[in-house]
Amino acid sequence: MIPAVAAMLIGLWGITTPSFWRDESVSTLAAAMPIGDLWHLLDSIDRVHALYYLLLRPVAALSTGELAMRLPSVVATAAAAYGIAVLGRKLATPGAGLLAASLYVVLPMVSRYAQEVRSYAIVTAVAVLATWVLIEATRRSSRRWYLAYGACLVLLGWFHVYALLLVVAHVVTVLWGRASSSSLSSPSSRPDVVRFAGALAVAGAGIAPLALLAAGQRETQLSWLKPPKPSDLPWLGEQVAGNVWVALLLVALMVVGAFSGGRLTAVALPWALLPFVSMAISLVHPVYNPRYVLFAVPAMTLLAGAGLNALRPRALGWIGLVLVAALTVPTHLTIREPDTRPDNLRDMAATLLARQRPGDAVLYVDEYRRLFSAVYEDAYRNLRDLTYAPDRRTPRTAAQLTAALDGVERVWLVTGGRKHMNRAFVEDDERYLALMANRDFALRSTDDFGYSWIGLYVRKRR
């Protein structure tokens, strides 16, 4: 329980200091909107996140503040830490499990996504659970446990479809176990390939509806992803570990653990290599992003924990853990600063609230930008929304926007894209182009808040 408690404490440390950013804004507003509006939203975008949004609805009903909305991720991180300790104990020794879970808790990437209103921490906890259930199914040779494993995969896929890469690692683990009876949960157990295949079939049936529903939204969801570059390899290490020195130390410990981990290696090594599988796939079909492979970090810490546990005298393992923790402190401090997220929506809302006047209007570019920006709703509540027609669901055309500008003196543009890899929506949004071409309005000011920015258009005096 010690790693789980530590994960909770570290996750809660400074949790309300960083501003919500655009992805968190979407999660929070989606969870808080009326259920009919949520179904309408999912008809256009984010079907792959439907289960997560539904999970957040009870939380959003209580509060949409940073603490409440980020708390499920903190709890999931604590659950993952506990699960890692259990896996390490089952596959190696209690000491290896405790060291692995403790390493997981102190890694900056883990802490970063423990404080994120997205599904990544929950996905990681489910990945740990699925791995434990597979090991138990192998040990017990029970149809019921294999069915439970299939159910875990369904849950994993519905929380984040790309986490199903875990199945690739598990297939390797099962084949490894067939080749060597000492590979998995106990020296006398061997995986039942037929029941394992049946569990995968059950999982496939449970995930197929999501695949069908999400297929039509792929371009909308993933158009921003690019094929990985060579620099993405060291960048992943820095994302996980916080700096290059901790990354190198972690890799060295993983190598030691892989050679000394026995049964643990059969489970953790294929799992830990999944980020590289994702990168390889992305050379043809981009699906890679560091946060999408957070679910592989437990495997990295299992190997590194086994590496620490193999050091002699044993005190060296704990000294190594303390060294890793100390080297990550500067990164932990940085990720808890107010403006370290890709957007500072809190400051943007404060600026907008301070400078708006009665009668001001707002134009969100593109039409989904309100979801990506307006989580601090007080700043937007009194602005007249020009983006949508009166039905609140159909974006206005350029002509309709021009007509709606009649009687409006000031328009706040809320958008994003200047400093980001994405295309800038303002380049081809018909409503923005109509506003920019309108000779009655002039751009008075712009303010950047990371990826997001606002501009003020004011009617010219005649």
How is this structure best described in words?
The structure is a single chain. The protein is an alpha/beta fold. It folds into two domains: 2-335, no CATH class; 345-459, no CATH class. It has helices at 2-12, 22-32, 35-42, 50-62, 66-91, 94-106, 108-114, 120-140, 143-159, 166-179, 193-215, 218-222, 232-241, 244-260, 263-272, 274-282, 297-310, 315-335, 345-355, 369-373, 398-404, 430-437; strands at residues 361-364, 384-385, 410-416, 441-449, 452-459. It has a five-stranded mixed beta sheet with strand order 2-1-3-5-4, with helices on both faces. The longest helix has 26 residues, at 66-91.
Structural class based on helices, strands and sheet pairing: alpha/beta
Radius of gyration: 24 Å
Strand order, biggest sheet?
A: 2-1-3-5-4
Q: Work out the number of β strands.
A: 5
Strand-helix topology:
Elements: H1 2-12, H2 22-32, H3 35-42, H4 50-62, H5 66-91, H6 94-106, H7 108-114, H8 120-140, H9 143-159, H10 166-179, H11 193-215, H12 218-222, H13 232-241, H14 244-260, H15 263-272, H16 274-282, H17 297-310, H18 315-335, H19 345-355, E1 361-364, H20 369-373, E2 384-385, H21 398-404, E3 410-416, H22 430-437, E4 441-449, E5 452-459
Parallel strand pairs: 1-2, 1-3
Antiparallel strand pairs: 3-5, 4-5
Helix pairs in contact: 1-5, 1-6, 2-4, 5-6, 5-7, 5-8, 5-17, 6-17, 6-18, 8-9, 9-11, 10-15, 13-14, 14-15, 14-17, 15-17, 17-18, 21-22
